[in-house]
Amino acid sequence: MRRICYRYPQRVDLSFAMGMTFPETLKYIAELNGQESTKTTGKELVRVRVKVEIALNRAEFGDITPDTLRPGVITEAVDLRISVLALALRGTGKVPVANDVFYVRLTDKNTCTDIDIAKENAGEGLDALDMKKILLGTSN
Fold first, then answer.
1. Count of domains in the chain?
2. Which residues contact 7 (CB under 8 A, 6 or more apart)?
3. Residue 66: other Cβ atoms inside 10 A
4. How many other CB atoms are found less than 10 A from the CB of residue 101?
5. What is the pTM of this model?
6. Are 119 and 101 in contact (CB under 8 A)?
7. Could you give the CA distance from residue 89 to residue 96 in angstroms, rounded to a whole number?
8. How far is CA 10 from CA 24, 120, 140, in A?
9. If you ran DSSP here, which 8-state letter would residue 128 be given?
10. Are the beta carbons of 3 and 78 closer than 8 angstroms?
11. What is the helix (H) or strand (E) element at residue 25, kind and residue range?
12. Of 93, 83, 104, which Cα lies nearest the Cα of 3?
């Protein structure tokens, strides 16, 4: 069954193919949920947190459950909403610096998976290429 959202943007910022099958890709991206990393930007220490949500019905997104990831539950295509929250770690506490939201569509192509990325709002912060690096595990 397809899990797509009608609000998915008509224009995508980046398309590429992932060399894994559809179920493997979905599970791999779902495992990014809750992932945190720390990096230094300029003179600040920044904590980056990733949140992955799946299309529940044609209008809303929600948390990914273990039942969702069972083989055969989702086939053909799925829409995900991935939020990347950056918090500057300062002496006064954690200060939000950015909250970038991306819509990601996975489409089954038998031996590989097509991935389309669209950013919710244009502007500063991360772009689709940065999201690709996060998905591939090559972001620094």
1. 1
2. 59
3. 7
4. 17
5. 0.88
6. yes
7. 9
8. 26, 11, 30
9. H
10. yes
11. helix 22-30
12. 104
CA 114 to chain centre: 14
Domain that holds residue 85: 14-136
Q: Alpha-carbon torsion 4, 34, 95, 42, what sign?
A: negative
What tokens does 81 get? 């909403």
CB 4 within 8 A of CB 58: yes
| Residue whose token pair is 């998905």 | 135
| Residue 62, both tokens | 């929600």
Judge whether 9 lies within some domain: no
Asked if residue 5 is part of any domain, the answer here is no
What are the residues facing 96 on neighbouring strands? Answer: 87
Tokens, residue 17: 């193919």
Contacts of 66 (CB under 8 A, 6+ apart): none
Please indicate, yes or no, if residue 19 is contained in any of the structural domains: yes
pLDDT of the chain, 140 residues: tens digit per residue: 788 888 888 899 999 999 999 999 999 999 999 999 888 877 889 898 999 999 988 889 999 988 888 888 888 999 999 999 989 888 888 888 889 999 999 999 989 999 999 998 877 778 899 899 989 887 65
